[in-house]
Structures are given as structure tokens and as C-alpha cells.
Amino acid sequence: MWTRLLYQSTLKEAFVPNKIKGKWLRPMISSRYQAMLKKEFIMANVPWPIEKLEKSNPRNKKPKGHKTEQLKIIKLEKIKKALSTNDDAMLKYRQERLNNRRLTGLDNVGSQVIPAWMKFDREEYEEAQKEAKSKTVGSDEEETKPKKNKGSRMFAEKKEKDNE
């Protein structure tokens, strides 16, 4: 068995099958004797110079699966990225969907009974609020003075009349 190693230049060549003239020949040293030789190397504290060759068997390969399964991960990553960067647009979209929803129940009855000129318009209300804020921001003096209600003025006038 060991004399066969003399014919080969390296151990690796002795352990691998060879193709000669289109025919495969078995390795010079069989797997059983390779294991014995490796054991003797380890017992003698000599490092084993050959690493086991990885043989790829198609049976061990994981099946590819359907195209939808392969693309699902990529699609989910795209969705997460879009949602994380576009929170405001998502909230705007949800609010738009709520506002455009068909009215049901009492809301539907109320919209049919109440005339159009009495209905609440949010956009007009928000514009009016902005205008009111812009007017009050321009006059700082009026904000610093305490405002009295009409009721307290009337009470003060009555008190003055009583004192006279």
C-alpha cells in the first residue's frame, strides 16, 4: 500500500481518480487506506497535508422554488423602504381615503337634509384660522393688554352707578 506513494509526486494525486485516454481509473490509494494514513499522521503529530475534497452532489442542492418566492423578499424590502421614507404621504393618503368615503347612516341623512350653505368646510375654516393668527401676530400690544369681557364692563358700570 505505502509503496504506491512512491510512484506519485504528491499525496493529492494518489488520492484522486485519474482520467487516462478517456477512461477513469480509480485512485492509487483507496478511501480506507487514506483514512488509515491520516490516522497515522495524526498519531505522529504531523499535520495532514490534504484537505478533503468537497464533492458537489446535485441531490444536496436546495431547489430554487417558484419565481414569486424568490422575488417576495425583494418586494418586501422595497415596500419597507418606501414606507419609511414616505410617512407624510401615507398619512395624507389615508386621510384622503377617509374623506372620500361614502357617507352612511345619520351622516348620509344629515347631508341630504342640511342645506349646502350650512355645511362645515374644513379648508375655509383653516384659512380663516391662518388669517386670524396673522392678524394677531402683527399687533403685539393688543396681546399684552388683558382683555375684559363685556359682562365685567357691565358689572363695573352698574357698580359705578350704585356708588353715585
Detailed description of the structure:
By secondary structure, the chain is mainly α. Among the domains are: 4-54, no CATH class; 68-114, no CATH class. The protein has 9 helices and 2 strands; from the N terminus they run H-H-E-E-H-H-H-H-H-H-H. The protein has helices spanning 4-7, 11-15, 31-43, 67-85, 87-99, 105-113, 122-138, 140-144, 150-163, and strands at residues 18-20, 23-25. A two-stranded antiparallel ribbon has the order 1-2. A hairpin with a 2-residue loop joins strand 1 and strand 2 (23-25). It is rod-shaped, with a radius of gyration of 45 Å. The protein starts with a helix and ends with a helix.
Distance between the termini: 137 Å
User: Widest sheet: strand order?
Assistant: 1-2
| Percentage beta strand | under 5%
User: Mean pLDDT, as a whole number?
Assistant: 78
Structural class: mainly alpha
Question: What is the oligomer described by this structure?
Answer: single chain
* Tally of helical runs: 9
User: What is the global morphology?
Assistant: rod-shaped
Helix/strand order, N-terminal first: HHEEHHHHHHH
Q: Note poorly predicted spans.
A: none
Question: Total number of β-strand segments?
Answer: 2
What kind of sheet is the major sheet? 2 strands, antiparallel
Structural Rg: 45 Å
Helical content (DSSP H or I, runs of 4+): 55-70%
